Amino acid sequence: MPSYAAPTRDIQFVLQDLLRLGESPLPGHADLDADFTAQVLEEAGRLATEVLAPLNAAGDRQGCRLENGTVRTPDGFREAYRAVCDGGWIGLDCDPDYGGQGMPYVMNCAVGEMFVSANMAFNMYQGLSHGAISAIHAHGSDAQKATYLPKMVAGSWSGTMNLTEPHCGTDLGLIRTKAEPQEDGSYAITGQKIWISAGEHDLTENIIHLVLAKIPGGPEGVKGISLFIVPKFLVGEDGSLGDRNGVTCGGLEEKMGIHGNATCVMHYDGATGFLIGEMHKGMRAMFTMMNEARLGVGLQGLAQGSVAYQNAAAFAKDRLQGRDVTGAKNPDGPADPIIVHPDVRRGLMMQKSFVEGGRALALWGATLIDAAHAGDEDAEALISLLTPVIKGFLTDKGFETAVLAQQTLGGAGFTRDWGLEQFVRDARITMVYEGTNGVQSLDLVARKLPAQGGKAMMAFFEMVKAFCRENPGDDMAAFTGPLKSASKDLQAAGMFFLQSGTKDPNAALSGSYDFLHLFGHAALGLMWARMAKVSLEKLAAGEGDPAFWQAKLATGRFYMARQLPATALHLARITSGAEPVMALEADAF
Amino acid sequence: MPSYAAPTRDIQFVLQDLLRLGESPLPGHADLDADFTAQVLEEAGRLATEVLAPLNAAGDRQGCRLENGTVRTPDGFREAYRAVCDGGWIGLDCDPDYGGQGMPYVMNCAVGEMFVSANMAFNMYQGLSHGAISAIHAHGSDAQKATYLPKMVAGSWSGTMNLTEPHCGTDLGLIRTKAEPQEDGSYAITGQKIWISAGEHDLTENIIHLVLAKIPGGPEGVKGISLFIVPKFLVGEDGSLGDRNGVTCGGLEEKMGIHGNATCVMHYDGATGFLIGEMHKGMRAMFTMMNEARLGVGLQGLAQGSVAYQNAAAFAKDRLQGRDVTGAKNPDGPADPIIVHPDVRRGLMMQKSFVEGGRALALWGATLIDAAHAGDEDAEALISLLTPVIKGFLTDKGFETAVLAQQTLGGAGFTRDWGLEQFVRDARITMVYEGTNGVQSLDLVARKLPAQGGKAMMAFFEMVKAFCRENPGDDMAAFTGPLKSASKDLQAAGMFFLQSGTKDPNAALSGSYDFLHLFGHAALGLMWARMAKVSLEKLAAGEGDPAFWQAKLATGRFYMARQLPATALHLARITSGAEPVMALEADAF
Predict the structure, then answer these.
(1) CA geometry: angle at B579 spanning B578 and B583, to 5°?
(2) Which residues between 250 and 279 in chain A have a beta carbon less than 8 angstroms from any beta carbon of chain B?
(3) Using the beta-carbon criterion (under 8 Å), do A509 and B325 form an inter-chain contact?
(4) Radius of gyration over alpha carbons of chain A, in Å?
(5) Closest alpha carbon to B262 in B90, B68, B71
(6) CB-CB neighbors (< 8 A) of A413 in chain B
(7) Contact status, residue B264 vs residue B282, Cβ threshold 8 Å
(8) Which of A190, A250, A377, A420 is least buried, going by the fewest C-beta atoms within 10 A?
């Protein structure tokens, strides 16, 4: 059985030492001093390790069952869900007007990482609700908010997002689900939706589906899509549950992982739906919560990497096999722990340096979302640019980290008993949902990069330059040197797109995926440089545990020396242009 | 359901146009003209696609069951196994004196790739037999060969390899299984072995276990290990089956993939065993068949990548989503097939260029094994050097290719119905067994590279140089340029090991994994350069289908432009030395 220890120390480092949350002038941040956030993290960590993590492997084995239209979640999920509701975790960053705790989004992420590491399939039930709550909060009428939000924020009702249909996932302009206007102002929703996470389950009294559908006679394609609220049980004016609505779960998807979460085929058969937001503006409504949703998936990738790494490190310190080539480290034992072997360490350092760097990037991104919510347009532009990077890079690397951790265990990593293979299977979906990572790269290069004349990209470059200018010391050279070089590669790639993309759009699009990874490395490089600066300052000031700062510096130096040079490879691929990628006729594949 | 089309055209290209098998002076090669090998491939391809592939998904779902000590394989496996025996496939490259067909090992690999693509879990039953047959053939007495080989070559008995114990896998010096000499010259074998593939099953009348054990009083560590034959049923002098031996299956491992293959815990309880080869020389006996076994696992990785790629390409040509940014390609349909999108193509080209390059490398390696068997010492030295590269690189990249193919399918790739996720799960074990890829890299850098004063490595460099010298034309520059550069990176890495490794062994070992990948890329670069040369010659001569040669050239150019530059990244990591990898105290992980 795998174990999980909540990394509260490291999260607290990022929140307080790196991001200085307690000093932020943003609304809702005044209370977030070190004592308070430590307390929140401790509580969440306890719930994650004591309640959620023990259900993870069992939930994977048992999975969900569809019985007479009802989905039964794995044993223990109902009790755990109640504990999450009772702790007020679902509404952590929700509007206090509807029962939320009003904390910033970054706290939701800090806590969320631990919940996802402990039990990703379980946490998705509330994760999906979070998206639906945001949508209703941002676009619902006052009456809709009053009707749905208090119950959803408390967790007694959950929410879903219904986008995909059998013939369309990415290309939503093709959706066929129809919404026919009724005399009472409601709509009759008819169609089939697939891959609906938590579409049906036994954890809550009601499920509030948010459904994309087309009102007949509207514009073609994505411009004719509207968003609807379709409750599983209709809700009376007094908030009481009424008739069962015409929405049913037609089947559960059998899949590679996240077996504890019900992935549903949903049938809408003239179900009563209520328009939310403006008619035909459903895509816009969806997009307003896209940054949060995508950052949340990036965090899932990171979280799976994090728990996998922990188990790999524990195994490597425990398993005795072979001898340290420079001399036995455990001479009285039959062999040395495998952590003495350089190649085992190489794998562990790759895992550790990604997890800590990625954590910093995700939480920094979350503070940008908080700033954007507070009206900071520069933060809004920057996080829009960074969102596909955070989603794509953290999920690709999170999966890779889980695979590396599995490899640390050798044969044991392939067996179910050790649990590493579940982290790999669960992490795999994060590269796909909320827009595949290929779609993220398209969004990055075709939309985000050129937005506002490249303003946000320029701001990132300026941020790197300023940091390097302000930290000229020799002790920072191992960080600023590689960071400058990575940033130069990123600039060169952007320049290549600018020069070639106007002549041939495929030249830029053939390099979009490599650009996302190039950017991801540069962003992690910036995070590590910032963490190094803080660590050196703390060491100099004699604050805290020197071993913590020294480990941080050593881990950062590994990332700069061994991982950041990947930017040159991505640049080489990008500048090779479209020809190698596009030369073959489709028939030749 | 995934599909599989046997890639006989491409395998035939490698065998005849690239490796010129029909012209080889090696023993047993005289018959291998184009017509004959085409016929063999057609027959094997038919068996793979019509019999083995249809059982793959079902075998994964059903798995194996242990019932009263007997393992039941999935439905249909018995019939399929009989078909494989009837076709004479198990003994394809075995000694005709024992009923084999006497073909070279390369033909076994060419056929094996298809069998593994079609159904990896199933094919392992005969794959393990193959290793045991080789061991008995190489080290058994005449009487042992006469007793066991005819039945094993025919497939009515199968074989296993028993190495791992709960506390040791890589470090076999620690094994505890005991072999106590008996008065009749046999040994009583007692101990527990784990992760024994095909350790027990219902496909054959008897199972011949090859077991590593220690004779009490022998030398410590690996120098005191001997190899024993332990049949499930003892065999009478007339070849008839006698008493059940004291070896039983104590349990089946639950694992991530290859569910159709029984991974057994084996209990030896005073079982009767017969020494094979010399006393205390069991490791040496195991090592003589290591090259074949490891190349076979590399081929498994490649084969999973190959079938995954096929399904990804078919999906990409069929799935309609979005529009070609340069203009609609399917204007009458609701959207274009996703193969029009550059990023989808990027993924497919990565898959295709690996699969075709890797196939060439594996089959070239097999011809080196054939040459080594015929007494060619240079070939023996070269394949010893290349074996860890082929095993490690083809399995890492085979898995990566399966993951990429899964990604091409988006959400569908995560569901069981489409079958891609099974290829990913099955491919994952290849990075682990027959020595983890980390152990391969250690073998490469610490043993193979310095062997005989680096003779084999020098031979590889000379081979690259000679090829580039002999092919100076402009039409080859897109291949020889990157190849030279990759070879230079490989030389620089070797030089770094030479200079730093003597002072600090960790400096070389910290770079071993990157060296393996650097070498793998350089080797695939050489393969692509050779394939390009053949393709240009055929085009110039007007032989064959021009579209085939042009596709080969375009695929090769992609590999050289987009994949080969990875050598510089691996070199940068290697030359960063041991410090970044080894700096942290074990406690800090």
Answers:
(1) 120
(2) 253-257
(3) yes
(4) 24
(5) B71
(6) 432
(7) no
(8) A377
A541 in contact with B, Cβ within 8 Å: no
| Burial of B470 (C-beta count, 10 Å sphere; 0-12/13-18/19+) | exposed
Q: What pLDDT, on a 0 to 100 scale, did the predictor assign at position A503?
A: 86
Check pLDDT > 80 for residue B288.
no
Residue-level pLDDT at B153: 98
Tokens of B83: 């078909």
Q: How far apart are alpha carbons B298 and B276 in whole angstroms?
A: 27
| Helix (H), strand (E), coil (C) string for B263-288 | EEEEEEEEEEEEEECCCCEHHHHHHH
Does position B1 have pLDDT exceeding 90, yes or no? no
Q: Which residues contact B192 (CB under 8 A, 6 or more apart)?
A: B165, B166, B177, B250, B265, B266, B267, B268
Q: pLDDT tens digit string along B126-167? A: 999 999 999 999 999 999 999 999 999 999 999 999 999 999
Phi, psi of A250 (to 5 degrees): -95, -5
> Does the distance separating the beta carbons of A421 and B551 come in below 8 Å?
no
Average pLDDT per 10 consecutive residues for chain A, totaling 589 residues: 96 98 89 96 98 98 96 98 98 97 97 98 95 95 97 98 93 95 98 97 98 96 96 94 98 98 98 97 86 95 98 98 95 96 98 98 97 96 98 98 98 97 98 97 96 96 98 96 98 95 90 98 98 98 97 98 98 97 96
Q: Is B331 exposed, middle or buried (0-12, 13-18, 19+ CB in 10 A)?
A: exposed
pLDDT of residue B286: 84
- Predicted local distance difference test score (pLDDT) of residue A458: 97
Q: Is B461 exposed, middle or buried (0-12, 13-18, 19+ CB in 10 A)?
A: middle
Q: Which of residues 483-512 of A touch B (CB under 8 A)?
A: 504-506, 509-510, 512
Report the relative pairing of strands A206-214 and A225-231 from DSSP bridges.
antiparallel
Span B235-250, mean pLDDT? 95
> Is the Cβ of A152 closer than 8 Å to some Cβ of chain B?
no
Contact B414/A255, CB-based, under 8 Å? yes
Please give the pLDDT value at position B256.
98
Tens of pLDDT, residue by residue over B327-367, are 999 999 999 999 999 999 999 999 999 999 999 999 999 99
Q: For residue B414, give how far its alpha carbon lies from the nearest alpha carbon of chain A (Å).
A: 6
Q: How far apart are CA A379 and CA A385, in angstroms?
A: 10
ipTM exceeding cut-off 0.85 for this assembly: yes
Structure tokens at B449: 């590279």
CB proximity A65 to B under 8 Å: no
Which pLDDT score, from 0 to 100, does residue A410 have?
97
Q: Are B353 and B309 in contact (CB under 8 A)?
A: no
Q: What residues of B act catalytically?
A: 434
Chain B residues within 8 A of A558 when measuring between CB atoms: 580-581, 583
Q: At what angle do helices A342-373 and A105-118 cross, to 10 degrees?
A: 140
CA atoms within 13 A on the CB side of B480: 16
Q: How high is the pLDDT of residue A235?
A: 97
Q: Which of B254, B411, B510 comes nearest A415 by C-beta?
A: B254
CA closest to B263 among chain A residues: A415
Q: Are B137 and B173 in contact (CB under 8 A)?
A: no
B578/A contact by beta carbon, under 8 A: yes
Q: Does B327 touch chain A (CB under 8 A)?
A: no
**Residues B265/B249, Cβ–Cβ less than 8 Å:** yes
Length of chain A measured in residues = 589
